[in-house]
Amino acid sequence: MNFQQLKYFAETAKQNSISGAASKLYVSQPALSAAIKELETELDIRLFDRNSKGVTLTNDGLSFLRLALEILEKVDDVKKIYKNSTTLKFQVSSQHYAFVIDAFINFININENKKFNLRVKETKTLNVIEDVYQNKSHLGIICLTESNKNVIVNLLEKKSILFNELITVHPHIFIRRTHPLAQHKKINIRELTNYPAVMYAQNNSDFLSEMFFMEEAIVIEDPDRVIYTHDRGSMNNILSNTNSYTIGTGCLIKDIIPDEITAVPIEHDNGEMVIGWIHSNNNISEEEDLFISLLKQSLDKNFIRDTQK
Prior knowledge:
Blueprint: H1 3-15, H2 18-25, H3 29-43, E1 48-51, E2 54-57, H4 59-85, E3 88-94, H5 98-110, E4 116-122, H6 125-133, E5 139-144, H7 149-158, E6 162-169, E7 172-176, E8 187-188, E9 197-200, H8 207-213, E10 226-229, H9 232-241, E11 246-248, E12 261-267, E13 273-279, H10 286-302
Parallel strand pairs: 3-4, 3-5, 8-12, 9-10
Antiparallel strand pairs: 1-2, 5-13, 6-13, 7-11, 7-12
Helix pairs in contact: 1-2, 1-3, 1-4, 5-10
């Protein structure tokens, strides 16, 4: 006796017809008839009376149906318990982008009724690539710029990592709303020489390698005053309370980017930022596909299209 035989028997009793049950179960009539016959032989009872109109349960068949339905219900309960005990595991590594956190928050809310182990890691460029390469993260979010494109694309190809574009944006200056340049419609890069630059540290051995993997779209060589930080919280605190600046996407998301910070586009023709997701496998899981969709939704919602080129 097996689960399939019980399932076939119960459906036949429900339909009062072998052909009807076979149609519902997507099996052939001979296969279903054989399964029920084997069950009758094993139990040494007759489960159905056959007639021209179909089948009807015998007294033994009716008694056995009650037991079979109890067993089938218990099996369904076990399946539900196992399904609910499955823990959703998902990790994404990214450069420091508010829209990634926005998407991650929405991902959490969508899966709030599931058991999960979720991780988001904001880190330097090489770590994002390495996390994806070593399968520590399912997806990585990075940016290609004029200064780093050739180096990063070459590195991705060597590691068989695929880059998929999400959006191309024109770089902006992030500054506090009381900054002397905050009211400008656009900012010339030369106007920034009087203010400290805040950059995400890449911890590379020299300026050249630091430049190739920097997150900022435009390279300001050897600024007089530069502040390096490793996390977005420190970055936002510094920008909110000083006249420093950083160069980024221009994406302002309420409750993620402080209200004290604004973004002004840069007067620059060759500084586009190509933001995309990377992965090391051609097969995209359901969870990965959902997260990519949430990234796109956040980008569509929070980027002002007329500032892009």
